[in-house]
Amino acid sequence: MTIQRVSGRIVDVVNRTEFPGTVEIAGGLIRRIRRDARPRGRGLIMPGFVDAHIHIESSLLPPAEFARMAVVHGTVATVSDPHEIANVLGVPGVDYMISDGRRTPFKFNFGAPSCVPATDRETAGARLGPRAVDRLLARPEIRFLSEVMNFPGVLGRDPDVLSKLAAALRRGKPADGHAPGLRGASARAYADAGITTDHECFTLAEAKGKLRAGMKILIREGSAARNFEALAPLLFSNPDRCMFCCDDLHPDLLAKGHLDAHIRRALALGVDRFDALACASVNAVRHYGLPVGLLQEGDPADFVVVDGWRRFRVRRTYLDGRLVAREGRSLLPRRRPLIVNRFRAKPREASDFAVRAEGRTLNAIVALDGQLVTGADRVRARVVGDMAEADTGRDLLKIAVVNRYVAGAQPAVGFVRGFGLRRGAIASSVAHDSHNIVAVGASDAELAEAVNAVIAARGGVSVVGRGRCRILPLPIAGLMAAGAGADVARRYTELDRAAKALGSRLAAPLMTLSFMALLVIPDLKLSDLGLFSGTRWKFQPLFGR
User: Fold this and answer.
1) Would you say residue 327 has pLDDT above 70?
2) What is the CATH number of the domain that holds 194?
3) pTM
4) Using CA atoms, how far apart are residues 267 and 474, in angstroms rounded to an integer?
């Protein structure tokens, strides 16, 4: 049997010790770790990183292509909820993610989506009831019940929600949470139902309350929601009950970094190095029971070599003893993905986005930079004739959601502040969680042009303005691109710059757009059925109180 050796300074996160040594690998496993006074190699050898909660679809890449980019940053595994594609295609969508993920040695760990659709206040492409979820959980490759977003259903003892939780508990599989803003007795009741984690905390007080309720906290830093700074004190007080995650990470940021960036930030704050690394590896592996090595004898040889504690740059990544990334370059082969989709929307006219004024006061969504939560504002409408129009001078734009599953459905139209566009429009078929088409624009004609570009591509992200229409096609379920990750990242970066050139000051305007239809995160959002308050849990009128 061939023995492979990798030498350097061993960082044993499990036993919280560091020493010079050599890792001996045979048959994909760590055969032996021995101390060496003078190891031949240089660098820090440590367990590979595990993203404790990420939707692969939000990278706009299928799993095998995501893996090619992630291993460069030392990521060897993810805990992934495939509910984005499940909302479009149902169980076949989950199967697609598992199948594509198997084309790479990267260790994807998928869950059974618990909320497809997220609510009954929108139109999705599929529905996973208790029986479908139970059948998924019975499969050994399904490792957990994905985020239970319907926290009102948990608290209200909804039979379908409780049935899904019971199916997970019966099989000893953890249930992930999703309960933004839940506090006090409600948080305790949510945890008591069997929920083990939460990644939606955006204040330290909320996170501490959920810790007291018995949940573990996933510290999220992604493209749209960035909570690391607010929750970083937990890395000093409760590191054993924290994990790092991105939740949603678009390709432009994935090209620059992944959990290695979380670790660098933690180390810069003075967090104990073993605690920081445990939040990026050990804690997730143990909580979810993942088949991922932790740099112990007998473990799968899943580890990384980092240049040092000061710069903390990943030099090499190994999966089952196989070198899969070296010096910033992925060694995983490119795999051409299969194309699957469900897209029935037909082209729209500018008149489809016209809004007749039914009052002088509007209920407007307020987009918040770096947050998934939104505000609600009552603003004076700009009325021209008898129609309510956008008013770029007051950052009051139109927002529309177009049903992608029913060809003749009338768009829902509302108003939004916070995007800052002075002209043009942006649109996307990545519109959590049902993935209809969401668009924000300065005029009805530009809205129609941006939406129609997405429809023509049967899914994509578009930016219209300055006489141009740019589009990144997403032919895989209207969520993922078929091209190489580096090219997708480049094209997405161009779209991001184009949106900002139209006036948006948001850090990630296209990512923020994709969450404007996510009703389960308060407060005010827009579904294809109308304006909805997540706090009041009911539809709201566009005009008046």
Assistant:
1) yes
2) 3.20.20.140
3) 0.94
4) 37
